[in-house]
Design brief:
The complex is a heterodimer of chains A (238) and B (140).
Chain A: E1 14-20, H1 27-40, E2 45-51, E3 60-63, E4 95-99, E5 103-105, H2 110-113, E6 121-124, H3 126-130, E7 144-151, H4 155-174, H5 179-187, E8 192-193, E9 199-201, E10 213-215, H6 231-237
Parallel strand pairs in A: 1-2, 1-4, 2-3, 6-8, 9-10
Antiparallel strand pairs in A: 4-7, 5-10, 6-7
Chain B: H1 4-16, E1 20-24, H2 31-34, E2 42-47, E3 57-59, E4 72-75, E5 91-97, H3 111-117, E6 122-129, E7 132-138
Parallel strand pairs in B: 1-2, 1-4, 2-3, 4-5
Antiparallel strand pairs in B: 5-7, 6-7
The chains are: A alpha/beta (238), B alpha/beta (140).
């Protein structure tokens, strides 16, 4: 299957991405994320979901998995997230934004996306820094929080993709917890970060006033968004 | 006093007849390992922790970096890396730990696990002591 190359210049077109596989999240997560982008992004955009399911959501374009499939072998559970670093993957170029399904968008996304300037942007687990959590373990700990990427295909993102391709079997074995361990260990110097005042982690810190993004990442037995009985679930539902 | 696992490895090294050895992922080891040249064994050390390395070290990751190791290799921390025997060939002494340190990606609970992971086809020695499995063998 061939994909039309979509070239965007400046603020003409932004491509939003998410990915859905397995049974952790329902299609509602994709629908809510798409609706949230519609409410909170000013500008022309397309919305894509890398998935093996038929979503039947108007305005959401389904993409097949790229090189890395969702193979659950107990290590590096989010292998398909690496596909987004492939230059021109699915024939899509220009400004790109990836969002995890377990984020709740609270404010105008443009205030993060328009910070992009040549270096890819990624979220940071600011709370780990605040709480002095040790992050020098390649296997499990990460400073990055890949709940959002903002990027364009550049020389440095090409370097990331080539590194992934060259060392994938080592990476998948060594970085047990996944993509954030990998990006923290090998590519931290290539990123800018979502500013501290625009994001917070629901399960790990107090809400940040006027934040744009709330991450509801679950590490052990924390509740997923749909299981919460909280204001954040109401915001998620729009 | 030398750690029990390191003492065993040192004793095996003395028995080995090796004239050269690469000491990999050493972490902090006894000075006795650094003095083996006086016993007729040339060595070079490899570790990726800048806090560890000395003049006789190469600061690197022996899995990811293009390093050529000696045909004789001691890996002190198999629990922290991709199986070295899948990347390098030769005669190995490998220590793996079941301690479950937060940085350990490859918890080692048996000698058989080390033998299988590192494609060891000829086994000279094995020993399991609390928290450590140690194997001496070849995969070339």
């Amino acid at each position: 299957m061939r994909y039309r190359t979509i070239v965007s210049y400046g603020d003409v077109m932004t491509s939003f991405f998410c990915t859905l596989w397995g049974d952790k999240y329902s299609i509602d997560y994709v629908r809510n994320l798409h609706n949230a982008v519609k409410r909170n992004y000013d500008g022309e955009f397309k919305f894509y979901c890398q998935t093996d399911r038929e979503l039947h959501i108007e305005g959401v374009h389904e993409l097949p998995f790229g090189k890395y499939k969702p193979i659950m072998d107990g290590r590096f559970p989010d292998k398909p997230k690496l596909n987004f670093w492939e230059p021109n993957c699915w024939g899509i170029s220009g400004r790109k934004v990836f969002l995890d399904l377990d984020v709740v968008i609270l404010g105008n996304l443009n205030s993060i996306i328009e910070l992009y300037s040549e270096r890819p942007i990624i979220n940071k687990s600011w709370w780990k820094e605040d709480q002095g959590v040790q992050i020098d373990h390649i296997a499990y700990s990460a400073l990055t929080n890949g709940s959002i990427y903002v990027w364009e295909d550049t020389v440095s993102t090409k370097v990331i993709w080539e590194h992934i391709n060259k060392y994938d079997k080592f990476i998948f074995f060594t970085c047990v917890a996944g993509s954030d361990n990998y990006l923290t260990t090998f590519h931290l110097d290539k990123f800018n970060f979502v500013p501290r005042d625009k994001v917070f982690s629901y399960h790990n810190e107090d809400p940040v006033k006027n934040a744009v993004l709330c991450t509801v990442e679950t590490i052990s037995d924390e509740k997923e968004i749909h299981q919460l009985n909280s204001w954040i679930k109401e915001r998620w539902n729009g | 006093m030398m750690r029990e696992d390191h003492r065993i490895v040192f004793d095996w090294l003395m028995e080995s007849g090796w004239e050269e050895v690469s000491l990999v992922a050493t972490g902090r080891i006894s000075d006795r390992f650094y003095s083996i040249k006086s016993l007729g064994i040339n060595h070079h050390c490899y570790d990726m922790d800048p806090a560890i390395v000395r003049n006789d070290y190469t600061l690197c990751d022996v899995i990811f970096d293009p390093i050529t190791l000696s045909k004789n290799i001691i890996n002190f921390n198999a629990q922290k890396m991709y199986p070295i025997g899948k990347v390098h060939k030769g005669e190995f002494i490998i220590i793996g730990s079941a301690d479950k340190h937060p940085g350990d990606c490859n918890i080692v609970t048996s000698c058989q696990q080390l033998i299988d992971q590192n494609k060891i086809h000829t086994v000279m020695r094995t020993i399991e002591i609390p928290n450590y499995s140690i194997v001496w063998g070849c995969n070339d």
